[in-house]
């Protein structure tokens, strides 16, 4: 059981971080279905950086941290294009995001094949921490949270707290939420809509880029021009979480748990007796999200101005 | 003698008049497609720069290969272009139909794959005589796509759920469902993909004009569909209502149109086109669905095709052929040392430029106005 819980952390953390990224952007009123592309881009460069850094003999955890950070920075740069299109150029946000999603895998494969010589970016380091001294000795809790863990687990929790406090307890956070609800009103109160939206989209890119690196580094030993639809899955987490940080955490746990079961159900006697195909477990989170959307969309907390172009002249 | 001169004169004036009309028409068409041409130009130029950076010596021959595309390989090349264009014209149509009704159908990959599976299922397991078999495959495949497209439509109509989000969900549900059904019903264990369909279920190939190319009558079906959809939007009440509710939901409601019904109808037709795309592409012996959970790329290509085709049904024919031609060029230029993904880079740049082109024209107009205002002010000062 503890094994499965720990396995599901590997899915939960990237889902949580990327969904928080989506939250940052959407709270300011900019839809971001480019999460998939941004994640992929961050993962590509971040893992590549890890591949180069691990040869220098640096501390493994430091390599990991640097990789995550580089992935985040790449995410910022890449999401800039989405921000520019949807904020300055009044583009349809879905279309500009689609362009980003198309670009990322093509760019990753093209560059990797041209420079590295193959599509895959491999790395050798194992980033898992076997046991954290002292804390790891606590019974059960220590076993679940402080042994056989990744540093990214704590980063994810930390980011959740930071985003939560930031959005709901700071002035800028209030401005972001106001911009997403009613940009004209916010503007009339002296909030610079463009600045706020840029900040939100770029920070969304930062989180998504980091999430990409964490996803690949913890689930695989190579980057193969894909993040397995995790960007879109995170979007579903965000919606299932009804744009609220606490519920996003719950949604991420829910989605991550089902994903883990879909790959590990044969080792759980109760589930393997059911003889359901693994695709059923993989499908369930999507189907449940769909049902939730169908029946509870009236109580949706989606930002009101989401997806709308803000035109100052139209105020 | 005199008569002959008169006749000649008449012919002359006729030619000049006709050429003027034709020129005017060309100018009009050019004006309409200018944004697309501009986007294509920018996309290919940036792609060329990327090629120059990575492999300067191969960049020029590569560029020529991209532009020539399938044309450089004779009839076989053209056949391959038509073959690849078939599904993306149809998914492009799917996106266009939704566009015109004010909806964004990003669910084409899901609708396409359920259509594809239906065709494979019928092709492998059912026994029917030749023309009937593939006709049934296509019809039921189209129906499957329509049902899959109806889900976001119904949710949008009933509870105003964002169709983009629902489409993303149905994409994954559809793909996972198909993987499950393949494993259950038509699985080829040795290759981890679906079994080959029966010969009776295969779409007829177009003669021997196109050499060994796999092009089928599917391309004709796609073109006919584009024309039918064009006709529906231009000449029928249904098309008018769909467009009206896309243009202004409140006004169309006020005019007595049932906007909920329109949303569902549009998504059903849209999904049907994507389903047909899948059914056509997989009603070919040797085209099998795999069991990896990857969304079908041709579904997403529909968005690019619809944008390049200026959101018009007829436009998707040309945009689909263009995109497929460039893809073919990308396939050939691997000899010059370029991964074919350069084409997707170019296409994504084209899509991006199209998305911001509205903003660009807006900015240009604003600048022009500012300049004119300045001039006016100066003139006034001089006075």
Describe the model.
The complex is a heterodimer of chains A (about 325) and B (about 375). Chain A has one domain (about 1-230, about 300-310). Chain A is about 70% helix and about 5% strand. Chain A is built from 13 helices and four strands. In chain A, helix 2 (about 35-55) packs across helix 10 (about 230-240) and helix 6 packs across helix 7 (about 170-180). The N and C termini of chain A lie far apart (about 55 Å). The mean pLDDT of chain A is about 90. With about 375 residues, chain B is mainly α. Chain B is about 75% helix and about 0% strand. Chain B contains 13 helices and two strands, in the order ααααααββααααααα. Chain B has helices at about 1-55, 55-70, 75-100, 110-125, 130-160, 165-185, 220-235, 235-245, 250-255, 260-280, 295-310, 315-330, 340-380, and strands at about 185-190, 195. Chain B has a two-stranded antiparallel sheet with strand order 1-2. In chain B, helix 5 (about 130-160) packs antiparallel against helix 6 (about 165-185). Chain B is globular. The model of chain B has no long low-confidence stretch (mean pLDDT about 85). The interface between A and B is large, with 50 and 53 residues.
Percent helix among the residues of chain A? over 70%
List the strand order in the largest sheet of chain A. Answer: 1-4
Mean pLDDT of chain B: 87
Uncertain regions spanning at least 5 consecutive residues of chain A: none
What's the alpha carbon Rg of chain B, rounded to whole Å?
A: 24 Å
Helix-strand makeup class of chain A: mainly alpha
First CA to last CA of chain B: what distance? 64 Å
- Written as H for each helix and E for each strand, in order along the chain, the element string of chain B is HHHHHHEEHHHHHHH
**Number of continuous helical runs of chain B:** 13
Would you report the number of β strands of chain A?
4
Shape of chain A: globular
Which structural category fits the helices and strands of chain B?
Answer: mainly alpha
Number of domains of chain A: 1
Gyration radius of chain A, in Å: 20 Å
Distance between the termini of chain A: 56 Å
In spatial order, strands of the major sheet of chain B run 1-2
**Proportion of residues in extended strands of chain B:** under 5%
**Main sheet of chain B, how many strands, which sense, barrel?**
2 strands, antiparallel
Multimeric status of the protein: heterodimer
Helical coverage of chain B, percent range: over 70%
Let me know the average pLDDT of chain A. 88
């Amino acid at each position: 059981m503890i094994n499965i819980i720990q396995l599901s952390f590997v899915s939960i953390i990237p889902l949580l971080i990327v969904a928080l990224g989506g939250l940052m952007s959407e709270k300011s009123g900019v839809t971001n279905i480019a999460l998939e592309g941004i994640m992929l881009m961050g993962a590509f460069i971040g893992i590549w950086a890890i591949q180069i850094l691990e040869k220098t003999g640096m501390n493994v955890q430091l390599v990991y941290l640097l990789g995550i950070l580089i992935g985040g920075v790449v995410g910022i740069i890449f999401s800039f294009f989405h921000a520019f299109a949807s904020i300055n150029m009044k583009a349809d946000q879905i279309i500009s995001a689609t362009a980003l999603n198309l670009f990322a895998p093509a760019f990753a494969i093209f560059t990797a094949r041209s420079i590295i010589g193959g599509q895959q970016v491999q790395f050798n380091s194992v980033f898992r921490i076997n046991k954290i001294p002292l804390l790891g000795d606590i019974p059960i809790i220590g076993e679940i949270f402080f042994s056989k863990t990744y540093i990214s687990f704590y980063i994810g929790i930390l980011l959740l707290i930071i985003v939560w406090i930031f959005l709901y307890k700071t002035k800028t956070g209030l401005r972001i939420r106001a911009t997403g609800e009613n940009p004209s009103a916010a503007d009339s109160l002296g909030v610079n809509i463009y600045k706020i939206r840029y900040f939100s989209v770029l920070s969304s890119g930062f989180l998504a880029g980091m999430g990409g690196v964490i996803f690949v580094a913890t689930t695989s030993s190579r980057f193969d021009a894909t993040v397995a639809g995790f960007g879109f899955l995170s979007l579903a987490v965000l919606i299932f979480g009804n744009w609220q940080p606490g519920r996003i955490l719950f949604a991420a746990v829910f989605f991550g748990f089902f994903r883990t079961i879909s790959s590990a159900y044969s080792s759980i006697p109760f589930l393997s007796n059911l003889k359901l195909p693994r695709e059923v477990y993989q499908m369930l989170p999507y189907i449940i999200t769909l049902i939730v959307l169908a029946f509870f969309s009236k109580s949706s907390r989606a930002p009101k101005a989401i997806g709308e172009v803000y035109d100052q002249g139209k105020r | 003698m005199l008569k002959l001169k008169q006749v000649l004169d008449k012919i002359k004036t006729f030619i000049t008049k006709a050429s003027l009309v034709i020129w005017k028409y060309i100018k009009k068409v050019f004006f309409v497609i200018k944004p697309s041409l501009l986007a294509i130009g920018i996309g290919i130029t940036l792609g060329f720069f990327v090629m120059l950076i990575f492999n300067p010596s191969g960049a020029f021959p590569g560029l020529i290969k991209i532009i020539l595309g399938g044309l450089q390989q004779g009839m076989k090349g053209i056949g391959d272009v038509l073959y690849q264009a078939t599904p993306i014209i149809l998914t492009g149509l799917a996106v266009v139909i939704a566009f015109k009704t004010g909806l964004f159908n990003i669910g084409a990959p899901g609708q396409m794959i359920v259509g594809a599976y239906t065709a494979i299922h019928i092709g492998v397991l059912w026994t029917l005589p030749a023309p009937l078999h593939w006709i049934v495959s296509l019809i039921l495949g189209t129906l499957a796509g329509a049902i899959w497209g109806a889900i976001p439509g119904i949710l949008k109509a009933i509870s105003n759920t964002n169709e983009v989000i629902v489409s993303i969900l149905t994409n994954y549900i559809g793909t996972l469902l198909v993987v499950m059904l393949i494993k259950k019903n038509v699985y080829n264990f040795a290759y981890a993909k679906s079994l080959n369909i029966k010969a009776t279920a295969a779409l007829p190939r177009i003669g021997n004009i196109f050499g060994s190319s796999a092009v089928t009558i599917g391309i004709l079906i796609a073109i006919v569909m584009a024309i039918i959809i064009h006709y529906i939007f231009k000449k029928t009440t249904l098309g008018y209502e769909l467009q009206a509710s896309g243009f202004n939901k409140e006004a169309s409601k006020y005019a007595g149109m049932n906007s909920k019904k329109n949303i569902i109808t549009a998504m059903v037709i849209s999904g049907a086109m994507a389903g047909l795309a899948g059914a056509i592409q997989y009603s070919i012996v040797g085209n099998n669905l795999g069991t990896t959970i990857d969304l079908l790329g041709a579904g997403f290509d529909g968005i690019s095709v619809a944008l390049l085709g200026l959101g018009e049904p007829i436009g998707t024919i040309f945009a689909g052929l263009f995109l497929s031609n460039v893809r073919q060029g990308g396939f050939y230029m691997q000899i010059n040392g370029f991964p074919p993904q350069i084409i997707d880079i170019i296409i994504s740049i084209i899509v991006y430029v199209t998305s911001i082109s509205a903003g660009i024209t807006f900015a240009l107009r604003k600048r022009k106005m500012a300049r004119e205002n300045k001039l006016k002010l100066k003139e006034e000062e001089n006075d």
